[in-house]
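User: Sequence for Putative alkaline shock family protein YloU below. Tokens please.
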Amino acid sequence: MNRLPAVEERGRLEIHPAVLRKIVEHAADQVPGTLRHERRLAGIDIGEAGASARITTGAGDPPTVDVRLELTLQYPAPVRTVVAAVRAKVGEELARVTGHRVRAMTVTIAGLRPARPAAARLL
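Assistant: Structure tokens for Putative alkaline shock family protein YloU:
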């Protein structure tokens, strides 16, 4: 009868930095006060963009990551409060989804924009 090796002896799981980046960006975009903004190329609308992250992976148990995050925030908004919420959300989501721990996070505010007004509705 073939017995499987113990769980810790079966191999290891590596999560590509691009996956970690997408998790960070998605988590940051979920925080109230962060905004997605229009992307334009030569005056042509090419969609929307939200948070943009760069990830550097480290070693350790649990594995660590360094995050450089660029955000657009709603204006007016308490910047420090929103950034603290982003830091907490990103750390929680990375730990929950991947088991990684944020070692360092640098947040750059790329812009402050008014929230979009609600679309006009015809009655």
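The chain has one domain: 15-114.
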